[in-house]
Amino acid sequence: MDGRRILSTGQVSPLVIEILSRFGRIEIAPKTDEGSLISLMRGTIALFVRGVTPVSAKVIESADELKVIGRTGTGYENIDIAAATKRGIPVVFTPGAGARSVAEGTMAMILSLVKRIPELDRKTRCGEWDARDKTIIGDLQGMRLGIIGLGRIGQEVTRLARAFDIHVVAHDPRLSKETAESLGVELVQLNDLLLSSDIISIHAPLNAGTRGMLDKQRLSLVKKGAILVNLARGGLIESLDVIYEGLVSGQLLSVGLDVYPNEPPDISHPIFQHPNVLLTPHAMGLSVKSSHSIFSMASRGMADVLEGRIPANVVNPEVFHGNARGTR
Predict the structure, then answer these.
(1) Going by CATH, does the domain composed of 99-279 fall within 3.40.50.1000?
(2) Which residues are catalytic?
(3) For the chain, what are the domain ranges?
(4) Are the C-beta atoms of residues 208 and 181 closer than 8 Å to each other?
């Protein structure tokens, strides 16, 4: 193996080591800023990208021996795909591998917030038994759930929500009316969804067209007392400030966040002290089954490239057809 390295921007499972160690030694980057990654690129033949670590054009251009990039997730907005394509480097990703896990996490957050479980837990621990008579506990039955982005995860949330007799509406410009009807979902415009939904769940991809799509103006349209959960990408919401303002004004009753504009987030922001906010560390897609599927799909796809095969899930398949300069 000589000096060949497979570099990961975060911890990996034993399964990854089992699949990829025959191609080179597997190392975890101690730091993942641009400069640190560039310093580690010499001898790196494969880059395993965990989370939202930025992989810039400068990082890619510095990697003379890089043959493949693997991304453990559906989104790949943190990787400069154009730079990878220019170099003829395939970017492998794992669409759908964590969909069920994230959907279950979404429903867990929604249930926790509607049933006021975090609040009641705190009060019970403090001996406030009369909280049972003073706390308004909601019912999912008959509520209107607005899903922004009806891809794999959004569709899975829809299926799970049916068990609770929730009326589901969705906004997704890419989805056909026929597909929505097959799911029993009513397609609506985004503003209509915000105005009418009791619960808003975000599952859209992050790109130039969706970044900051929920800004201060749009959040002002939200039905007063609505619940907002985001398990997609933090950048879909303009800032933590606009969410916090919505909570303080009462426009939002409660909020559940698994993702943040910057990760790890700055916990000095007042939203981290608000009692009606439920927070998790971008972990809802990391269940046992989901993690196994994600690590397996990413590492096997990377192994395919390293062995000269075309992987099943690749962001830039044109690199295999001689359309990119430097194609291997």
Answers:
(1) no
(2) 233, 263, 282
(3) 5-96+288-321, 99-279
(4) no
